[in-house]
Design goal:
mainly alpha; 2 domains; 83% helix; 6 helices
Length: 196
């Protein structure tokens, strides 16, 4: 509304309208009815109508600006969520490497703690609307189920419920498959184009 072109256009329309109302006043009112009070009434009515039209146009302009602003904010939030998800996936991939390293040194308690942390990130990823919509990934339930099973078995071994040592090569294989899946999701998310 502060655009100089808009102001000039509005001013021109106002002056043309004022001239038309003046012309109509002179043409349609008898000379005996052309007095100050009738003139003020006619021109006041014109000014009121012009003010209402300008107010309507301003409200319409503000609502379109609000809609545009809302869309920009939604895109920004979506982009921020996407970046946060990419960061989480990258972190999860690093955690997998750390867990595998802990298994190499038979540090089962540390590996279990990190696997539980990994589980939290993966559950959030699974339920992320961005991840599902943008990558076409419906779920990676199989990899999650394997992780949950490995956590339970490792927990049972550490707590003494099970005496049999966990099959670390199977756990490492499951983790490697999971790492590949996460890397694919991360790559797809990084390559999504955003309209500016």
């Amino acid at each position: 509304m502060h655009n100089p072109l808009y102001r000039n256009k509005t001013r021109s329309i106002f002056i043309i309208g004022l001239l038309l109302v003046g012309l109509l006043y002179v043409e349609f009112f008898d000379p005996k009815d052309q007095n100050i009070i009738n003139g003020i009434t006619v021109f006041g009515t014109y000014l009121s109508l012009f003010g209402i039209i300008i107010s309507y146009l301003q409200i319409k302009s503000v609502s379109s600006i609000n809609l545009e602003t809302k869309l920009v904010i939604e895109k920004s939030l979506q982009r921020m969520n996407q970046l946060a998800l990419v960061a989480d996936l990258s972190k999860a991939t690093m955690m997998i490497r750390e867990i595998q390293e802990q298994f190499e040194h038979a540090n089962y308690r540390i590996a279990l703690a990190r696997m539980k942390d990994l589980k939290v990130i993966l559950i959030q990823t699974k339920h992320s609307e961005i991840c599902i919509l943008k990558t076409g990934l419906i779920s990676f339930n199989k990899e999650l189920e394997e992780l949950f099973t490995d956590i339970i078995n490792l927990n049972d071994y550490i707590s003494g419920t099970k005496k049999k040592q966990p099959n670390t090569s199977k756990i490492n294989k499951n983790l490697e498959i999971l790492s590949t899946t996460l890397t694919e999701i991360e790559s797809k998310l990084k390559n999504i184009k955003h309209d500016s």
